[in-house]
Amino acid sequence: PLGAAFQSCARHVLGREPDLTVFDVAPDADPPAQTERILDWMRACAPDEPILILCDLYGATPFNIAAQVQRQALEQGYVVHLL
Questions:
Q1: Going along the chain, which residue ranges are E strands?
Q2: Residue 83 to residue 75: CA distance in whole angstroms
Q3: What is the pLDDT along the chain (83 residues), one digit of tens a residue?
Q4: How far apart (Å, rounded) are the C-alpha atoms in residues 22 and 80?
Q5: Is the Cβ–Cβ distance between 52 and 81 less than 8 Å?
Q6: How far apart are CA 3 and CA 28, in angstroms?
Q7: What global pTM score does this model have?
Q8: Measured between alpha carbons, how far is 75 from 24 in angstroms, rounded to an integer?
Q9: Phi, psi of 79 (to 5 degrees)
Q10: Rounded to whole angstroms, how far apart are CA atoms 65 and 3?
């Protein structure tokens, strides 16, 4: 749960809740289900706001899920960047 740890660190440093959403991916997570979970969140957000996805390891399962989310979101007209 690296994302949640970074969120906690940002909360500590900023002294307030950071404006971000974290999707930790468990080692045994189902990639298509995780992709849909993130896309569902995106659809519920303000569709005109660009989205930045931060991921830790290129080529690892969380990154592959994020890349799939980005591809599908771009096809649906969202502005999504992945680092």
A1: 51-53, 80-82
A2: 18
A3: 778 888 888 889 999 988 888 898 888 899 999 999 999 999 888 678 899 898 888 888 999 999 999 999 999 999 999 99
A4: 15
A5: yes
A6: 17
A7: 0.82
A8: 24
A9: -100, 110
A10: 14
Report the candidate in 3, 75, 1 with the shortest Cα–Cα distance to residue 39.
75
Can you tell me the distance from the alpha carbon of 82 to that of 70, in angstroms, rounded to the nearest whole number?
7
Q: Give the 3-state secondary structure of residue 16.
A: coil
Q: How far apart are CA 63 and CA 82, in angstroms?
A: 9
The burial class, CB within 10 Å (0-12 / 13-18 / 19+), for 19 is exposed
35, HSE (Cβ side, Cα atoms, 13 Å):
15
CA–chain centroid gap for 14, Å, is: 21
Write out the two tokens for 74. 């771009």
CB of 23 closer than 8 Å to CB of 53: no
* Tokens 């959403």 found at: 21
